[in-house]
Write a structure and sequence with these properties.
Layout: H1 13-23, H2 31-44, E1 48-52, H3 55-65, E2 73-77, H4 82-90, E3 94-98, H5 109-119, E4 120-123, E5 126-129, E6 134-139, H6 151-161, E7 166-168, E8 176-177, E9 180-181, E10 188-192, E11 205-209, H7 212-222, H8 244-254, H9 257-275, E12 297-300, H10 308-317, E13 323-324, H11 344-349, E14 353-356, H12 364-378
Parallel strand pairs: 2-3, 2-6, 7-10
Antiparallel strand pairs: 1-11, 4-5, 5-6, 8-9, 10-11, 12-14, 13-14
Helix pairs in contact: 1-8, 2-8, 3-4, 5-6, 9-12
This protein binds pyridoxal-5'-phosphate (PLP).
Pyridoxal-5'-phosphate (PLP) binds at residues 54-56, 80-81, 83-84, 142, 168, 170-171, 192, 194, 205.
Length: 383
């Protein structure tokens, strides 16, 4: 089976891991964690980066540090990986689910602006969502597939209401936005180094910000809110640090960030050229707000035909590790009752998004085979 998205570990990964073992630094103390933070901050244009155990943990830390708590709402798009909403729920808050734009599959900023202006009012507690009586505590845009969203506009809407912006940039390492690094936008951005991301640490996350006090707070919360060398703690913290073992792999991967992102973009381009416009297939959108990191690639299937789940299963029967994309959060049991906008765009596309093999180590032959297999499936040809 041609795998969907697996890491390429033929750089310094093994050497750095061996250094961890021989030095004895395998836990969250060790030189690679700090190096990984510096490399991520510099690659994303943020002043500070705080390593975390995962992207999900990083989102939970960021929301907690920004004061999101029980009963609050966090505005976020419905089409995302469930980790986005789980991080909100872990704070005792609920997502306020919104539709996406058709041309980049990220949070619709006009919808966000109208929803905050028309469905909320300012009270002593802050900005309150009238229908639920809950405080809106943050905006959580998602750079889906690594597509930059309308960050300037979202930041302006947030500033108008005094809300922090936590950018779920889990799969957006390598993207830029309006010609500027992601570090130019939002209150914090969270990256993931999960095994299927463009750059992996086996697992891991990074919370990035330009606010040094917030960075200190994030680091403090991630290490059980411990004060000093003894067992004194001043808040309910988390055991959310990245280990030196993870960071060793992550540093070796970060050394190849440019190469990996260039490869991801080339894979996207090759699928677009092979597939878009044939058998009713369309290219994944990249948005018009900057350069996508092109984390995943594939095709948007035509309306009213086979679903991505059906196509993916036919493709897997042909040795091509394809997968359908996320089921939107308003259609998932844990978030079905969450407040939400109408979802015409989300509902029109989600079942048609098909992900095709896009590992950085994918060969041109494997890619051609994957594209041809999809054309065969679309044409109803049997193997
Ligand atoms: C991968 C991903 C996450 C979760 O990151 P983990 O490191 O797996 O916890 C969250 N949001 C999005 C959009 C992702 O792609």
């Amino acid at each position: 089976m041609i795998p969907l998205c697996i890491p390429k570990l033929d750089g310094n990964e093994a050497r750095y891991l061996a250094e961890c073992v021989s030095s004895g630094f395998v836990s969250s103390v060790g030189p690679f964690v700090g190096r990984m933070e510096e490399m991520t901050a510099s690659a994303t244009g943020f002043a500070r980066a705080v390593a975390a155990a995962s992207g999900t943990a990083g989102l939970h830390l960021a929301l907690t540090a920004l004061g999101v708590g029980p009963g609050d709402l966090v505005a976020t798009p419905s089409l995302t990986f469930i980790a986005t909403c789980n991080a909100v729920a872990h704070c005792g808050a609920a997502p306020w689910l919104m539709d996406i734009l058709a041309d980049d599959w990220t949070l619709d900023p006009g919808l966000l602006e109208r929803a905050l202006a028309q469905e909320c009012e300012r009270r002593a507690a802050g900005l309150v969502h009238r229908a639920t009586g809950r405080r809106v505590a943050a905006i959580l845009p998602v750079l889906l597939l690594g597509n930059p969203c309308a960050m300037e506009r979202i930041d302006a809407v947030a500033a108008a209401h005094g809300l922090p912006v936590v950018v779920d940039a889990a799969c957006a390492l390598g993207a830029d936005c309006q010609g500027r690094p992601l570090g130019a936008f939002g209150t914090v951005a969270v990256f993931s180094f999960n095994g299927n991301k463009t750059v992996t640490a086996g697992g891991g996350g990074m919370v990035c910000t330009n606010d040094p006090a917030l960075a200190d707070r994030l680091r403090h919360l991630s290490t059980q809110a411990r004060v000093g060398e003894d067992y004194d703690h001043d808040a309910v913290g988390f055991n959310y640090r990245m280990t030196n073992l993870q960071a060793a792999v992550g540093c070796a991967q970060m050394e190849r960030l440019e190469e990996f992102v260039a490869r991801k973009r080339a894979i996207r381009q090759a699928y677009d050229e092979a597939l878009a416009g044939r058998s009713g297939l369309a290219a994944f959108p990249r948005g018009r707000h900057g350069d996508s990191s092109c984390w995943l690639s594939g095709a948007l299937l035509p309306e009213g035909g086979v679903t991505a789940r059906e196509a993916a299963s036919s493709l897997r029967a042909r040795g091509v590790g394809a997968r359908a994309f996320y089921r939107p959060m308003h259609l998932q049991p844990p978030y079905a009752a969450a407040p939400r906008s109408d979802m015409p765009v989300c509902e029109a596309v989600w079942e048609r998004i098909l992900n095709l093999p896009c590992s950085t180590g994918l060969t041109d032959g494997e890619q051609a085979q994957s594209a041809q297999a999809l054309l065969d499936v679309m044409a109803g040809r049997t193997t």
